[in-house]
Design brief:
Elements (H helix, E strand, L loop, with lengths): L9 E3 L8 H10 L3 E2 L4 E2 H6 L2 H6 L10 E5 L3 H12 L5 E6 L4 H5 L10 H14 L4 E6 L9 H11 L3 E5 L13 H10 L4 E4 L5 H11 L3 E4 L8 H7 L25 H5 L5 H19 L1 H15 L6 H8 L5 H12 L4
Parallel strand pairs: 1-2, 1-9, 3-4, 4-5, 5-6, 6-7, 7-8, 8-9
Helix pairs in contact: 1-12, 4-6, 6-7, 12-13, 12-15, 14-15
Length: 341
């Protein structure tokens, strides 16, 4: 993939309901090497659904991005890939890991893991329609009794994928339990294309640990970036993390120093002023694309994430659910800025 990874290959994952244009732009500004769109229905894209086009919106500051598609029909996904290519992504990703029942019922997402050959058919069909590189994001298997990520990876590579992201959980696990980083390590060792790891990367320290333990080629950050896009600026302050023989966590300048509680610092305790400034920037950018009212409603979940762990955060969140204008949010954001440290 011909984009500048800035020698720090940390990506924003395609997080449903979160990886919209405003949040991607924020993460890109913070230093994410690449940001993925929310997963986009191939069927809806082919049909020209207006809400689907909105998912493909891209801020001018996001110099490059990736598009993730989901579906189960090779012909439909091939058409969708051709349409997606017009938006000039550096890569188009096929979702083979979403565990949501609605997606599974349609035979898409993690359901594809039950028919690995279908994944190969889809990848080949997509590649036939575009010169944009095709990648896949998958899980270790359908459940603990059907771990087949190596088989799926081999088929995908044979079909021509440029990279594979492995979330170290089965479909049955959903987002519970501990991610299997050993599987990411094994895939990295046995696969000829770049492998990106995903799962349990909730802070900069975890991201570095994943690279050190698995030797993967990059890390996909999902939940760890929600309310904490600063994770990318943290990671960009580190030098050559993959080659480091050891890693001693040193909080960068964005963190509040708290030697009496290093674990809280590691988890992302930050200057409230920085949180407030970023949250307002995020909200205002979202309003430019969604309109003020819709943006303010959608921002409620982001506001909850930004205020997680802050003193008085629960009271702020209770008030935020009634906000429908930027001016209504501003007093709450000002309270964040003045929060005691």
């Amino acid at each position: 993939m011909n984009f500048d990874s800035r020698n720090v290959p940390f990506f924003l994952a395609p997080v449903a309901g979160y990886s919209d244009v405003a949040f991607r732009a924020i993460c890109f500004e913070m230093g994410a090497a690449l940001c993925y769109t929310e997963m986009i229905s191939a069927e809806a894209l082919v049909r020209g659904h207006p809400k689907t086009k909105l998912l493909l919106a891209r801020d001018s500051s996001e110099r490059y991005f990736a598009i993730q598609l989901f579906g189960s029909n090779p012909t439909t996904l091939a058409k969708a890939a051709r349409i997606a290519a017009d938006y000039k992504p550096v890569v188009i990703d096929l979702n083979c890991g979403c565990p949501v029942p609605k997606i599974i019922k349609a035979g898409a997402g993690a359901a594809l893991l039950r028919t690995p050959e279908r994944i190969g058919e889809i990848v080949r069909a997509m590649r036939d329609q575009t010169s944009v590189p095709i990648s896949i994001k998958m899980r270790t298997g359908w459940d603990q009794d059907s771990i087949n990520y190596l088989e799926v990876a081999a088929i995908a590579v044979q079909a021509g994928v440029c990279a594979i992201t492995l979330h170290g959980r089965t479909r049955a696990q959903g987002y519970s339990g501990k991610a299997d980083w050993e599987a990411i390590k094994v895939l990295s060792e046995q696969t000829s294309v770049p492998v990106f790891g995903s799962g349990d990367v909730l802070n900069a320290g975890a991201a570095i640990s994943m690279i050190r333990e698995t030797r993967c080629d990059g890390v996909m950050v999902a939940r760890g970036a929600i309310g904490n896009p600063f994770i990318f600026s943290d990671l960009n302050e580190l030098d050559n993390p993959k080659e480091a023989e050891a890693y001693s966590y040193k909080p960068p300048s964005l963190f509040i120093e708290n030697s009496s509680c290093p674990e809280r610092t590691l988890l992302g305790l930050r200057n409230p002023g920085i949180i407030a400034k970023t949250a307002l920037h995020h909200l205002e950018m979202s309003a430019r694309y969604l309109g003020e009212r819709t943006a303010c409603i959608e921002f409620r979940k982001h506001f909850c994430a930004y205020t997680r762990g802050l003193p008085g955060g629960s009271e702020l969140r209770a008030k935020a659910v009634r906000c429908s204008t930027i001016d209504e949010y501003k007093p709450l954001i000002e309270i964040i800025a003045k929060a005691p440290t």
